[in-house]
Structure prediction request, 172 residues.
Amino acid sequence: MKAFLNRPLEGDWSYLWSDATYLKVRRGGWIVSVAVIIAIGVNTDGRREVLRLEIGTSEAEPIWTEFLRKLTRRGLHGVKLVILDAHEGIKAAVAKVLSATWQRCRAQFQRTALAHAGKSGRRVVSAFITTAFAQDTAEAESTQRRAVADQITPKLPKLATLMDDAEHDVLA
Prediction:
Protein backbone atom coordinates (compact mmCIF):
# COMPACT_ATOMS: atom_id res chain seq x y z
CA MET A 1 0.00 0.00 0.00
CA LYS A 2 2.79 2.42 0.92
CA ALA A 3 4.53 1.80 -2.45
CA PHE A 4 1.28 2.52 -4.31
CA LEU A 5 0.60 5.74 -2.41
CA ASN A 6 4.20 6.97 -2.86
CA ARG A 7 4.66 6.01 -6.53
CA PRO A 8 5.81 8.69 -8.99
CA LEU A 9 2.97 10.49 -10.73
CA GLU A 10 3.61 10.77 -14.45
CA GLY A 11 1.83 12.94 -16.99
CA ASP A 12 -0.72 15.66 -16.42
CA TRP A 13 -3.51 15.24 -13.90
CA SER A 14 -6.18 17.68 -15.09
CA TYR A 15 -8.68 17.15 -12.29
CA LEU A 16 -8.22 16.53 -8.60
CA TRP A 17 -10.88 15.68 -6.04
CA SER A 18 -9.79 16.13 -2.47
CA ASP A 19 -11.61 15.85 0.81
CA ALA A 20 -11.29 14.70 4.38
CA THR A 21 -13.49 12.78 6.74
CA TYR A 22 -13.09 12.35 10.45
CA LEU A 23 -12.77 8.99 12.16
CA LYS A 24 -12.24 7.98 15.75
CA VAL A 25 -9.03 6.04 16.40
CA ARG A 26 -7.34 4.68 19.48
CA ARG A 27 -4.01 6.39 20.25
CA GLY A 28 -2.04 5.78 23.39
CA GLY A 29 -5.06 4.41 25.21
CA TRP A 30 -7.24 7.36 24.21
CA ILE A 31 -9.87 7.65 21.52
CA VAL A 32 -9.17 10.67 19.33
CA SER A 33 -10.60 12.12 16.14
CA VAL A 34 -8.33 12.19 13.09
CA ALA A 35 -8.78 13.54 9.57
CA VAL A 36 -8.48 10.96 6.80
CA ILE A 37 -7.42 13.01 3.78
CA ILE A 38 -7.68 11.72 0.23
CA ALA A 39 -6.85 12.96 -3.26
CA ILE A 40 -8.25 11.36 -6.39
CA GLY A 41 -6.94 12.51 -9.76
CA VAL A 42 -8.03 12.18 -13.36
CA ASN A 43 -5.27 12.20 -15.95
CA THR A 44 -5.49 13.43 -19.54
CA ASP A 45 -6.45 9.90 -20.69
CA GLY A 46 -9.50 10.03 -18.41
CA ARG A 47 -8.07 7.46 -15.98
CA ARG A 48 -9.09 8.06 -12.36
CA GLU A 49 -6.75 7.00 -9.54
CA VAL A 50 -6.32 7.45 -5.84
CA LEU A 51 -3.18 9.58 -5.65
CA ARG A 52 -2.74 10.01 -1.92
CA LEU A 53 -4.32 8.95 1.35
CA GLU A 54 -3.07 10.29 4.64
CA ILE A 55 -4.04 10.67 8.27
CA GLY A 56 -3.90 14.24 9.55
CA THR A 57 -4.77 16.01 12.74
CA SER A 58 -7.19 18.47 11.09
CA GLU A 59 -8.12 20.26 7.88
CA ALA A 60 -6.08 23.35 8.69
CA GLU A 61 -4.20 25.08 5.88
CA PRO A 62 -0.72 23.82 6.92
CA ILE A 63 -1.96 20.20 6.81
CA TRP A 64 -3.48 20.67 3.35
CA THR A 65 -0.44 22.59 2.10
CA GLU A 66 1.92 19.78 3.09
CA PHE A 67 -0.46 17.15 1.68
CA LEU A 68 -0.49 18.91 -1.72
CA ARG A 69 3.25 19.54 -1.65
CA LYS A 70 3.86 15.81 -1.18
CA LEU A 71 1.78 15.22 -4.30
CA THR A 72 3.75 17.78 -6.33
CA ARG A 73 7.05 16.29 -5.15
CA ARG A 74 5.85 12.97 -6.55
CA GLY A 75 5.17 14.61 -9.92
CA LEU A 76 1.63 15.96 -9.76
CA HIS A 77 1.28 18.72 -12.34
CA GLY A 78 -1.11 19.98 -14.98
CA VAL A 79 -3.99 20.40 -12.51
CA LYS A 80 -6.64 22.67 -14.01
CA LEU A 81 -9.50 22.17 -11.56
CA VAL A 82 -9.68 20.97 -7.96
CA ILE A 83 -13.08 19.84 -6.68
CA LEU A 84 -13.39 20.23 -2.92
CA ASP A 85 -15.60 21.27 -0.07
CA ALA A 86 -15.65 24.94 0.84
CA HIS A 87 -13.17 24.56 3.71
CA GLU A 88 -10.91 27.62 3.90
CA GLY A 89 -7.76 25.57 4.64
CA ILE A 90 -7.85 23.57 1.42
CA LYS A 91 -8.86 26.56 -0.71
CA ALA A 92 -5.81 28.48 0.53
CA ALA A 93 -3.52 25.47 0.03
CA VAL A 94 -4.76 24.91 -3.54
CA ALA A 95 -4.06 28.54 -4.40
CA LYS A 96 -0.61 28.39 -2.79
CA VAL A 97 0.61 25.00 -4.05
CA LEU A 98 -1.25 24.24 -7.28
CA SER A 99 -2.27 27.68 -8.58
CA ALA A 100 -5.37 25.95 -9.94
CA THR A 101 -9.04 26.88 -10.15
CA TRP A 102 -11.26 25.22 -7.60
CA GLN A 103 -14.92 24.33 -7.57
CA ARG A 104 -17.04 23.42 -4.60
CA CYS A 105 -18.23 19.83 -4.74
CA ARG A 106 -21.85 19.87 -5.87
CA ALA A 107 -22.83 16.83 -3.81
CA GLN A 108 -21.52 18.44 -0.62
CA PHE A 109 -23.20 21.72 -1.50
CA GLN A 110 -26.48 19.89 -2.07
CA ARG A 111 -26.23 18.20 1.36
CA THR A 112 -25.60 21.59 2.98
CA ALA A 113 -28.52 23.11 1.07
CA LEU A 114 -30.89 20.31 2.05
CA ALA A 115 -30.14 20.92 5.71
CA HIS A 116 -31.97 24.26 5.23
CA ALA A 117 -34.98 22.66 3.54
CA GLY A 118 -36.54 20.75 6.40
CA LYS A 119 -37.52 17.10 6.14
CA SER A 120 -40.70 17.64 4.17
CA GLY A 121 -39.11 19.94 1.59
CA ARG A 122 -35.90 18.06 0.83
CA ARG A 123 -37.14 16.12 -2.17
CA VAL A 124 -38.55 19.21 -3.92
CA VAL A 125 -35.55 21.39 -3.09
CA SER A 126 -33.17 18.68 -4.28
CA ALA A 127 -35.01 18.46 -7.60
CA PHE A 128 -34.96 22.27 -7.99
CA ILE A 129 -31.24 22.57 -7.30
CA THR A 130 -30.44 19.67 -9.61
CA THR A 131 -32.10 21.53 -12.50
CA ALA A 132 -29.47 24.27 -12.21
CA PHE A 133 -26.63 21.74 -12.42
CA ALA A 134 -28.18 20.03 -15.45
CA GLN A 135 -27.86 23.02 -17.79
CA ASP A 136 -25.58 22.94 -20.85
CA THR A 137 -23.96 26.35 -20.48
CA ALA A 138 -22.72 28.54 -17.64
CA GLU A 139 -25.25 31.21 -18.61
CA ALA A 140 -28.13 28.72 -18.52
CA GLU A 141 -26.91 27.38 -15.15
CA SER A 142 -26.79 30.87 -13.71
CA THR A 143 -30.25 31.74 -15.07
CA GLN A 144 -31.77 28.52 -13.71
CA ARG A 145 -30.03 28.93 -10.33
CA ARG A 146 -31.45 32.45 -10.09
CA ALA A 147 -34.96 31.20 -10.94
CA VAL A 148 -34.73 28.48 -8.28
CA ALA A 149 -33.41 30.90 -5.65
CA ASP A 150 -36.19 33.39 -6.45
CA GLN A 151 -38.81 30.67 -6.22
CA ILE A 152 -37.68 29.41 -2.80
CA THR A 153 -36.94 32.82 -1.25
CA PRO A 154 -40.42 33.33 0.31
CA LYS A 155 -40.37 30.02 2.20
CA LEU A 156 -36.62 29.35 2.58
CA PRO A 157 -34.76 32.68 2.57
CA LYS A 158 -31.63 31.22 4.23
CA LEU A 159 -31.38 28.60 1.50
CA ALA A 160 -31.80 31.24 -1.19
CA THR A 161 -29.00 33.26 0.40
CA LEU A 162 -26.81 30.14 0.55
CA MET A 163 -27.41 29.57 -3.16
CA ASP A 164 -26.55 33.18 -3.97
CA ASP A 165 -23.39 33.10 -1.86
CA ALA A 166 -22.21 29.82 -3.39
CA GLU A 167 -23.01 30.55 -7.05
CA HIS A 168 -19.43 31.09 -8.22
CA ASP A 169 -18.04 28.34 -5.96
CA VAL A 170 -20.43 25.66 -7.23
CA LEU A 171 -20.76 26.76 -10.85
CA ALA A 172 -17.06 27.30 -11.58
Notes: The chain has two domains: 2-104, 106-170.
